[in-house]
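Q: For a teaching session next week I want to show students how multiple molecules come together into a single three-dimensional assembly. I've collected the sequence lines for a complex. Could you give me the predicted structure tokens for the whole thing so I can convert them for display?
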Amino acid sequence: MNKDTYRSRNGGSWVNRVYGALRAQHGPQAWWPAEGRFEIMVGAILTQNTAWSNVEKAIANLKAAGMLDAGAILQAPDDELAQLIRPSGYFRIKARRLRKFCEWYTGLREYRNLRYWSTAKLRHALLGVYGVGPETADDILLYAFNRPVFVIDAYTRRIFARLGLIGGAEPYDEIRAEFERELGRQPGRMGEYHALIVQHGKLVCRPEPRCGACDLRAMCRFYKARRHSR
DNA sequence: ACCCAGGGTCATA
DNA sequence: TATGACCATGGG
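A: Of course. Below is the structure for the complete assembly, covering every listed component.
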């Protein structure tokens, strides 16, 4: 008995079945909400544990100041950068993170050559940058570089734990590996999937004790019941 | 006046 | 390996 019991009856693994349900409920998402590689990377750092609406204000400030550029960020005084991104929260520490990231990015001989790095090498390099953890690195890999990497965030843990498909407290890379194994290398689908998960987490799959009206409720019951009977 | 948000680092055991 | 403190603004 494994997670694919549903597959033989319905066609598609649990990963694809949940995807279909989310897509049916929320429609196409069209992520990442940004223009250009650098803006995506900046957004990935600024949105750490922060509502996107706050990040939008910070990015608008950077744009208006002509600072949506690695060189410009490195030239700006520390305090000026911090004040610009203030709406995104944790603004002092995030100013440092942006700076460290820009140091790494501009320090590369030719950062257009990142295109030719292997995904593993690029991921390792990103994780070596101060302020870039697994989720931020994977946001950048998937949305800025179109690499087949699945992003695991708090919503993913909550939704799939509630479905009974994961425990929820597993290490980041363990959950990521499971999704990537089930999905295969499909960056476009991975990006849309993560976007759907975020949308579902924001609007429907709220923290306990109460989840909202949810088209996945039947699936929740099915998987949880089967999980408990093992 | 709470709770929550598209995490990461660091110190400690 | 695994907890806990800390970082901070803005919306519900």
